[in-house]
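dude i think i finally got it to work??
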Amino acid sequence: MDAVMLAVVGAVLLLLGGAAVVFGVLPVAGALEIGDRVWPILLFVVAVTVVAELAARAGVFDAAAARLARWSRGRVIVLWLLVVAFAAIVTAFLSLDTTAVLLTPVVVAVARANGLSPMPFAFTTVWLANTASLFLPVSNLTNLLAAHRLGDLDAVGFLVLLGPSAVVATVVTVVLLWLTNRRDLRGRFSPARPPRVADPVLLRISALVLVVMMPLLVVGIPPWMPALGAAVVLAAVFAWRSPQVLRWALVPWQLVVFASGLFLAVGAAEALGSGVLLAAATGTGEDLLSLWQVAGVGLLGSNVVNNLPAYLALESAAGSPVRLAALLIGVNAGPLVTPWASLATLLWHERLHAVGVDVPWRRYILLGLVVAPVTVALSVLPLALR
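look at this
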């Protein structure tokens, strides 16, 4: 599903949602309520995407990755662990799409420049983009939706609820990455020279904007505010230093159309009674087996359809905060099997293809059949122990 196809699917969903409103399937009040719920989320997604894209154009991620290579002192395992930490931080604060789209080509380039196999680094970004997206509300669109469902839960409350599970998901992912790539992660290398910086002033200002914005995303104010402020500042800086970079293509309008149409379509489906059927599938209760059931349905739904529609369809049936957290584990850490389970995965594969790295889907699926259920099952345990 490329960007054009994403926009086409979104337009079709918008037409279906609009028809549902026109014919009374989805009341106008219900459609307005959906709009009131999602506009801050979509604004944040647009703003943080623009910030990440401009920071990447300024060379922030390239410079950071090159510094990680120097810090590793020529040890492959140390470089990989530093990339793991970097990917987890980027995912937590700048969302999984930033890791999948912008960080992937950077770490692949660093691996190649230092004579290393790019495959462990490529799988690190895509797996952690999903499993490390459980830390903060801003890490994933599903988290922002859930935070609203939980009464606009702030970053601290979200971290209290899902932090232990996020740590488990990340650690399990790292262990499985090491087990499947340990041969390529041995030995030493001679660190390559860092890439040339085209505009040091632009690089420093962009890095400073990121450093200031990231903590502001978790201090309790609506995330779209610091993200939008950072986007405006960076746009102004680029208008001064590199105006040719400022193009409408920086705005992820295809994702906005897709998400808007999806919200309306799911709202119409709920109005038709889909929630009753899904409630039967997810069950009730907060014991370990019940939480595994919720997370398992989320995992299955994500890999059959996609994690975003799976979450939207199941959130009403999830019920309590703990069960909703289990659902998030399923739809965030679970979509690692099918290529379409997460939009981030499709974008990741597209970026790898663009830089000449071929990851066969067969290998991705076979590894995902192991890592997804193991990660989800173990990540649910902290919820059951609450």
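The mean pLDDT is 89.
im so relieved honestly
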